Amino acid sequence: MLITLLATSTGSLAAAGPSTTSDQPTTAWHDGALRTDPAGLVSRSDLVQEGPAWRPYQAMPLGNGVLGAAVWAEKGLSAQLNRVDTFPDLKSAGRLVVPGLDPLMRATDYSGRLALYDSQLVQHGGGITARSSVRADADQFVLEVTGADPSKQQTADLKLWPGRTPTTSAAGAVAALAETFHDSASGSITGAVAALTAHARDVSASVVDPLTVRLSFRPNIDGSFRLVVGVPSYRGGDLRAAAKRAVVDSRTNHLAWWHAFWAKAAPMRIRSADGTGEYVENLRTLQLYTMAASMRGDVPSTHGAVVRMFSSAQDQADWAQDSYWHFNLRELVSANLGAGIADLNAPYFRFYLDRAELMREWTRTHWIGGQGLCVPEFLRYDGTGDGCDNTSEPSWVTRILSSGPELVHNIWQQYRYTGDKALLNRSYPLMRDVAKFYLSALTPGADGLLHLEHVNALEVQWDTSDPVPDLAAMRVIFPIVADLASSRGDTALATQLRDALGKLPPFRTVQRGGEEVLAWSGTDEAAHNTQNPEMEALWPWGLFDETSGLMQATYRQRVYPQDKDWGMDTTWAARLGLADEVKRLLLKGIQDFQIYPNGFTVHRTGQEAVRNHSFYNEWGGVVTTGLHEALVQSYDGVVDVAPAWPKDWDVSGSVQIEGGHRISAEVHDGVPNLIGIEAGSRHTLRVRNPWPGQQVRVIDSHGRTVVSPTSAEVVSVAVAPHASYTVERVAVPLSSFRFVPLTGQPATAVKTVGSRMLGVPASEPPLLSDLVSVRTPEKLSNLVKAQPGAPIYVDRSYTITDLPAELTGQALVQGANDDSKATGPDDYLTLNLTRPATIYVAFDPRGENVWWPSWLSGFTRTGETVGTTDQRLVLFKREVPAGPLALGANASVPNKGNSTYITFVAPS
Q: Which residues contact 414 (CB under 8 A, 6 or more apart)?
């Protein structure tokens, strides 16, 4: 099932094996296979926590493909639990809070890591160890703790937030929340239970309030305890019975599942002098991890590229969480194919195939004159579309047609990569009907050609003709479907498709930047979005290669160079042989999009982690596909190794290709040393000689010559399934290399590239105060130590630059700048004071005599200010007694208000 190109110089592999003084080059290609240590390789990409993840946006992701968890250190240990199927809004099942782990998080010897090979978050500190996981084989979040004080009572809460209406249950040692969701549009009912139990002593469950249930317990006599939160799907019924079933703690094969996953995934290790290669390698490994942790259900896990399963933001999310844009799924499908984990594409295929009949009916009722099936670009989970609609005005997705042929092509690619005939047979009616739809949508022109009229070019042009994505798509899928139709006896359809293929118009060209380039479509309609429709001819459709001057110019003059996280610019650059561009674009994308320390991204440039509520993962698919195409290409029928690999990144890695073969290459200074072939099917592979002008030969795993020495540009190699072969230079044969297996060492520190990082650095913990606590709102409940560098808002990155001496070290209650225009309620901020205190509030001076609130008249202006990286704030104070205290909202005038106020609390 593999084709592997392997071997490298001493410099690129010496550190992986035993120490040696030999100058003999090394290879991990041995006995017909690439010999790797998956545990060592994967651990290079572990996310190291040099300090706890105090902020929700720093949360670490865990998941089993259906249930996801985001874990961070707020209030001890917090874990938000999310299922993939709580439609229509994908609301969370709840948040687990274990306050007794706060000493671990605050310990001076704290250490933590997201261990990807085991899919566990492991944290140590103060003699306590906490190990969190979402079981691979059950919808359960598990927290295992050792080193706790056996004499000290602990609590664990499951909680929701205002606006939610759960049913609560507490019976014996099981506490539970449950809520169902009725979708009025489809009539469906979904929901989830979150049920909690503890393997500990003296366990008792209670209901704290309508949104919170609690377990109280004491650790076992050895200081250990184990919490299990079961989160199954729930549509109503006996909650106590459902909760009891949810927490059954059966024997697990969690580690075995994850170890088997990494053993089959195509490995990749990158080394570089400046660390940028290692960083990119980590992003690819994280993408594979994310796919395994999120794509094992009945539907895809990402909506508009937001992977909601790992949310730490309560129920907030970008975009419609009940629907899918196909454009945001294609990167993931492609990446999985090349990584050898094509089985994780199953939710994508199930989603569309299960709704095929609904899409046929949608086409019948929404596309006048349409036959067959049109796949809406925007498709709701219930099969309701937004797209494939010529009965309404042109808009963003209304007349995008190219999603259907992309689905057809992905089915065909999945079959070619895996040999899955069952998928192909099930999919053929859909593939056939997508082709039929295009035939019905084509209009004969005066030029004798067939044209598409009044359609979208992606989201860029809304009412155009002959878009490049569609013309390219038809050129690719019509022959595929025609051949399938012929093999199934449908010669009439096959003839129609082949006839139409010969009547498709050529791609239109225009002048841009002084060069002739592909146009977006047949018209010059202005752009509405920032995609590059003309580049689709290169990827995904593969109609051009690096020898095309037209495509090279089109790439140079593209209007929107990688300005969103879905831009496939790195893959386009790789297919055009532009190695330097591949590296530049990858590093630029990291700076532009990867703002979260867990590797997730945002949709566009100029975003701050504290201001966003959604983790995006399509950039991971972009990175992964780009790396695969830079290392190995085969889309044009020739296996090409290192066609666009950056020369200052040494790589040892694998890429799965069509036929079930795998290409694994070790490249040093841009040059591979060997080509090894593990074949997945009977085939004649055409392999480009990566050493131009040098003689090569091909041997099998027994050393027998398969292809005699030749200096041909392309070498044909007949391969048989489960056999392996080596393409070697005659002057530098396999026998001249010393075997060193491919391995690695666990990450030991946070990694950085420019201003971006992978992992969590040490930072100031939330302040513990015996004077003040915040009762509401919960989002402001974490106190901060007032000092230069301290953050002043929970939703902005502004910090204190200077402040009066009497405030240094005191409790700071941050503001929420999203509430800066709020005029109520009167008890917007409520504090509880254990003794008399001086309350200071610092206001934006731009609000004086404009929008400052009336309640500020009860405070005295001090004449001092607080310097921040936002505004210099005017300081007021007031003496207050012990007990509750309410402060109002930021503004007194509707729709007014600049920056919001912040609050300091000091002893009287």
A: 333, 337, 342, 345, 349, 420, 423
